[in-house]
């Protein structure tokens, strides 16, 4: 089966326009209320460090009863699933990694074949409570060792399809509603491909930093906002409604910012800060349902290291401690939240001369929180080979994991719409699936 090509830009289609100074896009929303009116198609406004991307689709009037939340945590740079979820029962693992293999006697949550990296000790209570599971040998159906091409293919999740949107944006379109901050990318930089599409999304590094472009914290008169209100308040056009909506969206974020930010209880890292903001957003009860967070870089061609030091142990420590703090911070909304980790591909089985690992294929995914069939390792193990160019073979298409989560947590969504042309296989990582 040939690899699915990365789709080039569509000829004649103008990329999204950034119009921060014009305040030209937004959406009408207020706390726990639905959108009103139309948003502008194809325009993006950057409101301070916040991005509001709008579609031309009309707002829908119904609010779903299901308040499930999915957080997609991307381990950018291609994490090594064989180090995080160790197949200690496969002798080829230790033969292929004489210097960097994780010792069997140091593993946690260990069964007769698999065990978790010891950095995951903070997550053991969730494992023992059956709120955390791992799925091994997952990934793209055909190996793709280009970071950028693999990330795009992974986040589109529609190889061979004419769809030019990300799978999370398509899931937003299946929700039957358009609520305030329903789809959110938290962290620095642009929103990921998975959220790109017609449905409105927000992107911000912190709730407290969300502001209209041109607003100055020192300006108590809020000159920028006042000018926009005078110009557009009585304008019933699409542009007028969009500008009014952008201002309303900022007010919603301020409601969320009134929640305590417990970042001090997280590791001091970009991931800790981002997950603290996600928890703050969810406790603000704004209607957020889909969230993306990036954590990287996991691209460790050299100095991946051992338990005594190196790059991986520090990254794994941060990942596990941040996730543990996040679930503790969720409070009363914890039973609504499911987290899944994803990475563009895995690493080779055999270590290289630089105490690192080169680009591979199969990987492991972690699934935690609500609805998870936890305390178990899922997937079909293909066996490892101790050769220079050996990969962990993918036996579970990553979309089967995502589709099972969607089916369990968003049962009203159409899987053929979210994952066009794909028929999922049962994984068993979610209860009732």
From TrEMBL:
Signal peptide as annotated in the record: none
Q: Name one Pfam family in it.
A: DUF1501
- UniProt xrefs under InterPro entries: DUF1501, TAT_signal
Under which name does UniProt file this protein?
DUF1501 domain-containing protein
What is the source species?
Answer: Nocardioides aquaticus
């Amino acid at each position: 089966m040939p690899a699915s090509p990365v789709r080039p830009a569509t000829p004649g289609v103008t990329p999204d326009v950034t119009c921060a100074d014009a305040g030209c896009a937004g959406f009408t929303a207020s706390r726990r209320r639905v959108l009103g009116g139309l948003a502008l198609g194809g325009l993006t406004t950057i409101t301070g460090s916040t991005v509001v991307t709008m579609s031309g689709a009309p707002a829908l009037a119904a609010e779903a009863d299901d308040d499930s939340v999915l957080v997609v945590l991307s381990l950018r740079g291609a994490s090594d699933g064989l180090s995080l979820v160790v197949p200690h029962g496969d002798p080829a693992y230790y033969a292929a990694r004489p210097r960097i293999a994780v010792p069997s006697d140091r593993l946690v949550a260990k069964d007769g074949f698999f065990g978790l990296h010891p950095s995951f000790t903070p997550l053991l209570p969730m494992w023992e409570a059956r709120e955390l599971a791992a799925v091994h040998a997952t990934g793209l159906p055909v190996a793709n060792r280009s970071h950028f091409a693999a990330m795009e293919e992974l986040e589109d999740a529609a190889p061979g399809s004419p769809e030019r949107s990300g799978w999370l944006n398509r899931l937003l379109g299946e929700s039957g509603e358009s609520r305030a901050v329903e789809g959110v990318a938290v962290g620095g930089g642009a929103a990921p491909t998975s959220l790109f599409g017609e449905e409105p999304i927000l992107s911000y590094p912190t709730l407290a930093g969300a502001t209209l472009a041109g607003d100055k914290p020192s300006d108590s008169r809020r000159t920028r906002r006042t000018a926009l209100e005078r110009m557009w308040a009585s304008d019933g056009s699409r542009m007028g409604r969009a500008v009014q909506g952008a201002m309303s969206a900022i007010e919603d974020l301020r409601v969320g910012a009134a929640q305590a930010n417990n970042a001090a209880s997280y590791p001091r890292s970009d991931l800790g800060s981002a997950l603290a903001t996600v928890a703050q957003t969810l406790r603000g009860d704004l209607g957020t349902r889909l969230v993306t967070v990036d954590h990287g870089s996991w691209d460790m061609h050299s100095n991946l290291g051992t338990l005594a030091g190196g790059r991986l142990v520090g990254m794994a420590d941060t990942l596990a401690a941040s996730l543990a703090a996040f679930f503790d911070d969720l409070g009363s909304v914890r039973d609504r939240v499911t987290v899944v980790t994803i990475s563009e591909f895995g690493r080779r089985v055999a270590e290289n001369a630089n105490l690192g690992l080169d680009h591979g294929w199969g990987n492991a995914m972690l699934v935690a929180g609500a609805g998870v069939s936890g305390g178990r390792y899922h997937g079909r193990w293909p066996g490892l080979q101790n050769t220079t160019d050996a990969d962990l073979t993918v036996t579970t298409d990553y979309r089967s994991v995502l589709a099972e989560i969607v089916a369990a947590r968003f049962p009203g969504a159409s899987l053929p719409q979210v994952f066009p042309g794909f028929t999922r296989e049962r994984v068993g990582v979610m209860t009732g699936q």
